[in-house]
Specification:
The chain is 24% helix and 24% strand. The protein has 132 residues and is of the alpha/beta class. It is globular.
């Protein structure tokens, strides 16, 4: 199977192992090559059996903080897109995925860090996945 090297996700603080496993399975289903994650403690809590098949095909790249992750993704030529329901967000179906893209998802409880929601130097597009 061919993988998509110019589409990835960045998980900012996703810490529940079953959510990480679900995200990995979804990324595998759409043939992503790798996922990126901010792991401030240097590791992700994973549920090995829940994502065992996906872990064979998807590389996980860890970053110490979100700013470093954004910089690394930009150096790869990726656009930074945050998944956040704001008035200036567009529907995820309206975004041009033919452009190299990194979609950023926040924590289960608090969402994205406030700095990255508001500062235009960090974010190029905002998308939402449900009705506003």
């Amino acid at each position: 199977m061919l993988r998509q090297p110019d589409l990835t996700v960045l998980l900012e603080g996703v810490n529940k192992p079953h959510n990480l496993a679900a995200i990995m399975r979804s990324c595998d289903a759409v043939a992503l090559f790798e996922i990126n994650a901010v792991a401030e403690k240097g590791a992700l809590r994973r549920r090995p059996k829940a994502s065992a098949g996906s872990r064979r095909w998807i590389k996980t790249r860890l970053h110490q903080n979100t700013a470093d992750a954004f910089e690394g993704l930009r150096q790869l030529g990726l656009r930074i897109v945050i998944a956040h329901p704001r008035p200036d967000s567009i529907a995820f179906t309206e975004y041009d995925y033919t452009q190299p893209t990194a979609i950023v998802f926040g924590t289960e409880l608090h969402g994205l860090t406030r700095l990255h929601q508001l500062d235009p130097k960090f974010v190029e597009y905002k998308i939402y996945f449900a009705h506003k």
